[in-house]
Each structure stands twice: as C-alpha cells, then as structure tokens.
Amino acid sequence: MVYALSWLPEVLREAGLKVAETNGWASRGRGEMGRVRGVMCHHTGSPSNLNMPTLNLLISGRGGDHPLAGPLAQLGLARDGTYYIIAAGRANHAGPGIWGGVASGNSSFIGIEAENAGTPSAVWPDWQMDAYRRGVAALLKHIGATSEMCCGHKEYARPQGRKPDPLFHMAEFRDRVRDIMRGSGAIREIIPLLDAKTGKKTLERGARGDNVKLIQEHVGVSADGKFDSRTEAFVRKFQADRGLRSDGIVGPKTWEAIIGLG
Question: In its UniProt record, which GO terms are filed under biological process (predicted)?
C-alpha cells in the first residue's frame, strides 16, 4: 500500500533541497495520515558527528525499557542538509500534546527528525539549518498552512516540559520560514553545474564515468567510475577534512581541492 505522503520527495526537490529516498518509504507507516495540518520539528539527540547515524532507528523504532515502533518520523534531516524520506504514512513522533488547536499529533503533523546532539553547545551547521527552514516552508506551502503551523516538539508536548527538542528558538525559526514562504528570505546558494576554473561538471551520487574515477582516486575509494553511497561518504570526509561543506556533492570548490592535489 502506498500512503498519502508520496508527494514528499517531489516537493522537497522542487525547493532545491537534496533528497535521499530510503527503501520502502512509500509503503511505510503506522497507518494512513489524517488531514495534514502542520510540521513538527525534532532533534535526534545523537552525539555522533556522523551524517545520519539514527536513520535505521527512525525507520525501525527503538527497543529497550521504553520501546516505540517505527517509523519515528516521516523525514530525517542529515547534518549535511539532505532529507531522508522515511515514511509516507503515519509515524510515532508526537505523543500527547496540542498545537494550534490540533491534538492528533501523529495523524496531523509531518515529523522531521534533524541530526543534532541536542545540547546547548551543539552546533547547527548553516546548511543544515537552511535546509530545515526551506523544507518546512515547502511542506507548509504544499498543504496550504501558514508558518504558525510549524511547531517544536517542546511546544506541542504535554505536560509542558515533557520534551526539550529542538533546542533552538522556535519563534525565530517560524519567522525565517515565513520569510521563505513569502519569497523574502535569503537567497539560497546554487551550486554551479560547471566549474569555470577546472571545466569539470558538478557530480553527485548516481554519476558515472572517468571524472568519477578521478574523484575516487583522490578521496581514497576504489576507482570503478560509479558514484555510489560509499563514494559519497568518502567525498564527505574529504570535504570535511578541508573545511568544505560536507554535502557529498563535487562542485567547484571540491573540484579545486581535488585538482590542486594532482
């Protein structure tokens, strides 16, 4: 069965965001959604600096003393700003609470779990926060809701204080989402399709060919000419080691770093 939120990847891609679809996402859920009224923001609370270490947990749920069946969100937002599509159906992410007069959290709110340690000192990379705002804006626009129907789990949850996430100022977040929805937000940096200095095309997962082999040789992965998930992971590390945005996309800045090694 394909659930109702099958439009998620298309809407996010149209907003210029990077999207990765997990296997089986379209038929994953705790049942069908009700009327979608808003978007609920969470953080994962994971201290790891890996890109999306909680992905399997969000898909399958958690065990232990407080088990909760998955999926635990419809969307996972990685540290590099990639949206992982987890489920098109209802997810166990809200629990008891109310926001905007809506108390049916799991049935009425799309849940986004963003990778972050959830501590006062934890850094939100600019590109991740930008993707967070733009993704929420795109979703709200699609369902015909205003920025006021974006809430933090900490705002929705009852009794108040039951949840701390996400650990950033939600009123300011909503203001930025509103600006994006009105078209008055900051212009998103677009990665050029061609690097004028090196003459190399921007490449990402799914690409093939000799330029992919060149990338693989420099990032330290087997050079088979296929830009797969393993190559993307090595590209991210290469970028992070050089202070570049670790998004796994080989654009002008990454090409310059690669060509400069030759």
Answer: peptidoglycan catabolic process
One domain for residues 156 and 68: yes
Which ranges in the chain belong to alpha helices (H)? 8-14, 55-60, 105-108, 126-143, 153-156, 170-182, 210-219, 229-241, 252-259
The HSE-up count of residue 226 (CA atoms within 13 Å, CB side) is 5
Structurally, the chain folds into a number of domains equal to 2
CATH assignment at residue 108: 3.40.80.10
Instruction: Please indicate, yes or no, whether residues 111 and 227 belong to a single structural domain of this protein.
Output: no
Strand (E) or helix (H) holding 79: none
pTM higher than 0.85, yes or no?
A: no
Cα–Cα distance for residue pair 29/70, rounded to 1 Å: 8
Q: Which value, to the nearest 10 degrees, does the dihedral of the CA atoms of residues 171, 172, 174, 179 take?
A: 150
Give 229-239 pLDDT, tens digit per residue. 889 889 988 99
- Which has the closest alpha carbon to 60: 73, 50, 69, 52? 69
Q: The tokens 């099958």 sit on which residue?
A: 6
On whether both 242 and 123 belong to a single domain, the answer is no
Residue written as token pair 């969100």: 73
Amino acid at residue number 115: E
- DSSP designation for 6: G
Asked if residue 225 and residue 156 are part of one domain, the reply reads no
Confidence at residue 262, expressed as pLDDT on a 0 to 100 scale: 47
Per-residue CA distances from 219 to 47, 156, 200, 236 (Å): 26, 44, 16, 9
- Rounded CA-CA distance 240/94 in Å is 34
Using the predicted structure, report yes or no on whether residue 181 has a pLDDT greater than 90. yes
